[in-house]
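User: What would this chain look like folded?
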Amino acid sequence: MTIADQVTGSTIAGTATAVEARPAEVRPRAAAPAISLPAIGERELRLDLFRGLALWLIFIDHLPASLLTWFTIRNYGFSDATEIFIFISGYTAAFVYGRAMLESGVVIATARILRRVWQIYVAHVFLFTIFLAEISYVATSFENPLYTEEMGIMDFLKQPDVTIVQALLLRFRPVNMDVLPLYIVLMLALPLILWSMKWRPDVTLGLSVVLYAVTWEYDLYLSAYPNGFWAFNPFAWQLLFVFGAWCALGGARRMSRILASRVTMWIAIAYLVAAFYVTLTWYVPQVPHLMPKRLEQWMYPIDKTNLDVLRFTHFLALAALTVRFLPRDWSGLKSPWLRPLILCGSHSLEIFCLGVFLAFAGHFILAEVSGGPFMHALISLSGILIMWGVAWVISWYKRVADKSGAKTKIAVGSADMAGGG
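Assistant: Here's the prediction, encoded as structure tokens.
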């Protein structure tokens, strides 16, 4: 089994062999789709594992800086948990809805995607409403208007009617609520992406790269309310989403020789070490003097809004090493120690929303009660335990309490891999 096979599994069993066995005169003349999908089998636990890890890291990064913050990957390289989340979202969405497009056609697959987009949009509106209520209650109860300013809802209190409309249009978002609007826009583009990849996956990826380059060259962006632009520019971040979809639909398998190469491995290691050295210059006063000035001028700023190429390549290096050293059939994926991460990753939409609530609650406790290191650690660990507990309850409900929908679940397979149930 090649390294790329560990990512995507084998192609659909029997299809290639059956076509090759037919005589030339009876083979179908219609061109077959250029994409290939893994056979239906066990759930890909590595995707859930790293998506759960991304959710935990996002929660910790949304809290004020603490000791646990130093365990998040953003302190040791250019990329962070957002890249992991968006890539896996593109991969799993293409895996689920790409199969639906091949088996049921474009119309049915598009309808399913739009239903999923609606679910995410409703979750975003619900999150927005509860989050505003949470912040407003705390700010009023403790007579501290700084909460409303710090969380970015001052404009809502001044013009609630206008702000609500802008929020429904995804143009107004409080702090920490930028990921779901990005995901909604990317999922809206998914039918076109899958339709294009059905016939020309490499061309589709190439067009995505072109859009990314045009975005940087001509400063394309979506405006936000009351001023500014989206924290995550969809015109740039679509590259990571499309790349994830491309990998899921056979791209990773076609890269098997590149991924298996020792040259690739050492290039990835060298890049990660160099990125780690650069991040040291941000925290250790003596190190910046060893950085060449020309390199600094070329490198900075490392733009997160537009998915700087240094962030993208840093993620690629991490992904290449992960695929190489963490095989699909690794026994540790069955370990009870990793079960909390996998559970959270398998219910990512619900856990992400919960993490936003918990982050503000933790921020409030640290500001009003105590900001010491012990309280930081307690809040971080408590938040993770709550996320795990809620994920366990959701999993239990779907497995035991919702037995009446068992047949429907079999039909949709692993639809929750695309972001939720």
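Residues 19 and 26 are 10 Å apart (CA to CA). If you want, I can go into more detail on any region.
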